[in-house]
Design goal:
By secondary structure, the chain is an alpha+beta fold. The chain has a single domain, classed as Double Stranded RNA Binding Domain, CATH 3.30.160. It is built from two helices and three strands, in the order E-H-E-E-H. Strands 1-2-3 form a three-stranded antiparallel beta sheet.
């Protein structure tokens, strides 16, 4: 049976970023019982893309073992 995979995207702004109006960034986390990757981006779409690419590399590495 395959592990359950979860994905979470959230705005990960710091207080100083909000005070000075320089925006923030988004963080997407993808995980299962044995692996976890995070992707950061200026938009939720960018962070999801980065996390997805990292996740694909982890999965490729697992299948090569």
């Amino acid at each position: 049976m395959a592990d359950k995979t979860t994905s979470k995207t959230e705005n990960d702004s710091f207080t100083l970023e909000n005070i000075f109006g320089i925006g923030g960034h988004y963080k997407t986390t993808i995980s299962d019982s044995g692996n976890k990757v995070e992707g950061l981006g200026r938009t939720s779409e960018q962070s999801q893309k980065v996390a997805s690419e990292k996740w694909d590399r982890v999965q490729e590495h697992k299948t090569k073992k």
